[in-house]
Amino acid sequence: MPTGVLVERRTVAVPVNRRKPSLIHWFLRRHSRARAMAVYFASAVAVAAVGALINWGVSLIPGNQGNQPGNNIAIQPVAVDGSHSQSHSSSESSSPAPPKPYAIGDCLGGNFRRSRPRNVSEVTCSSDAAKYQVLEVFGPESTDLEACQHVHGARKSIRDEYFLDGELSKSYVYCLG
């Protein structure tokens, strides 16, 4: 298990067995050239945005004033020793433990009305706050929300993602009924 500090936890919900796709979804499924053009333009926009972010990030580096003459300011080297890593490892042992994933049979409460549910937590199944029960669990590296399509009684699928130091650490898909 990777070490680090749990920075963020994201949850995504999708209804299972959606009956009616949106008009755009219906159109793009039936017109492959339009779908290819949409993917092409979306990819071009994403690449342009990433390039702009990289350019902006590089401009913030101290000493990077561009290719103008006379602006060659060198970044001074920094000595690296092992003392920092030893003090860092002792602080990690005091970090809080990441939340445990839900198990089959657990009941969940919270606001499930949006695609990103809020205040999702495990509750007792007899309480009024219980909205769904976990029917099936896929993980710890599952991201496919369509996995619940064949689970009997599933009404909603949610993906619960755990991030450590900004990187995706684990991802669970829960089938809820």
List keywords for this structure.
177 residues, alpha+beta, six-stranded antiparallel β-sheet, 3 helices, 6 strands, 26% helix, 27% strand, flat
Task: Sum this structure up briefly.
By secondary structure, the protein is α+β, with helices and mostly antiparallel strands. The protein has 3 helices and 6 strands.
What does the model show?
The chain has 177 residues and is an alpha+beta fold. The chain has one domain. The chain has three helices and six strands; from the N terminus they run E-H-H-H-E-E-E-E-E. It has helices at residues 23-30, 32-59, 83-92; strands at residues 6-15, 107-111, 118-123, 132-138, 156-164, 167-176. A six-stranded antiparallel sheet has the order 1-5-6-4-2-3, with no helix packed on it. A hairpin with a 2-residue loop joins strand 5 and strand 6. The two termini are 30 Å apart.
Strand content: 25-35%
What does the average pLDDT come to?
74
Low-confidence stretches: 82-93
The residue fraction in helices comes out at: 25-40%
**Shape designation:** flat
Give the H and E element order. Answer: EHHHEEEEE
Structural class: alpha+beta
Strands of the largest sheet, in order across it?
1-5-6-4-2-3
Secondary structure: elements and pairs:
Blueprint: E1 6-15, H1 23-30, H2 32-59, H3 83-92, E2 107-111, E3 118-123, E4 132-138, E5 156-164, E6 167-176
Antiparallel strand pairs: 1-5, 2-3, 2-4, 4-6, 5-6
